[in-house]
Amino acid sequence: MKFSGNKSESMLHYPIDAMIRVPLETFNKYIGGALQIEIDRDKADLGTTTIGTKRPDFLCWTKKLLLFKGEEKASSGEFNVAVEELEEKFNVLVPICFGKIQFMIGYAIAGSTVRFYAIDSSVEAKKKPSILFPLTGELNASNLVNRFTILRTVVNIARIILTISDNIPNTLIPLGKRQKLGHSFIMFLSNVVEKIILKVDLPYATNMDNQVNFLKKMYDYAKGHPGLVQVEKGPLFDKGKGIYRVVMKTRDIPCMSELKNENNVWEMMKYILTGRACNEKLSGYDDNTLTTAGYYTTTLDMYQLGKMLEALSSQISSDQGRGFVEELKSKKLTAELALKHSWINHSS
User: Fold this and answer.
1) Which residues, 6 or more positions from 199, have their beta carbon under 8 angstroms from its beta carbon?
2) pLDDT by residue (tens digit) across 8-52?
3) S-S: 235 plus which of 62, 179, 246, 286, CB 3.0-4.6 Å?
4) Superkingdom, according to UniProt (predicted)?
5) Is the dihedral of CA 308, 312, 313, 318 positive or negative?
6) Is the pLDDT of residue 101 over 80?
7) Based on the number of CB atoms within 10 Å of its own CB, is 348 exposed (0-12), middle (13-18) or buried (19 or more)?
């Protein structure tokens, strides 16, 4: 196997696929397709380089779980860059995309240098200098002995995938994978959602310039308004590809830092429950976030809100407010019941 001296990352695809993708697919075929894997590469197809830079170079899902990813650089001198990008991209393993799985497996490649890592998303790992745990040393893929080590590592990764596949819930959102929903193509990334619609599927598409300008004005008007969609890029229409595209943020304007007292917290919660809120990104996921079967339910959504409010306990002084937080955390409230709670319905 030879690695080209060409500086293009695309020239790496054949030797890398021969070492990683082909063994994975061969192993999967040998066991009758039990891995249920899908493999993709980051490429400029319907998307653009803006989205591309947010997506790993190599992605492998089992069922809908992104369990294996890779970063690739053409030059051997960029190995540290590949490692940094491996750590930076998709480094928050939220339950809606990962269930109870708190790790990923990844590789960094630069030229012929290869190294495999486990990506640990546990609370303990986040306190360390890096969430990457090396599974191998730096391997030279041009060396025959090292290539055997790479092959053995890939087979072991396949075994890990096979071992955990039965514990993966079918309700996950596949991170980094473009999905067709109705006439739209949707892709969830770490902090944005990309939406693409083909021109033939667009309503009122006789005058695309007018249509896009109208939508742009609508999104511009929504900027800074709690609860309304916030756009990161677009909307725009690519005449060459015949697609309409918009990239939306997965969270609205930050508002936690603006909460000064209990009334501010109450107002924020009322906005959230009525769908008009500046949703702060929920965090603090723990063993109680999912059901024992690994599902994320409506009451667990409220549980996460309770965890968020718990961090604001110093600003909630009333018995009603504190009781509301405890009921959220005890998983007794749905959004409908929360809206009827005495604390939510008291006058400001």
Assistant:
1) 205, 208, 237, 242, 243, 244
2) 555 566 788 889 999 999 999 999 988 899 999 876 544 544 454
3) 246
4) Eukaryota
5) negative
6) yes
7) exposed
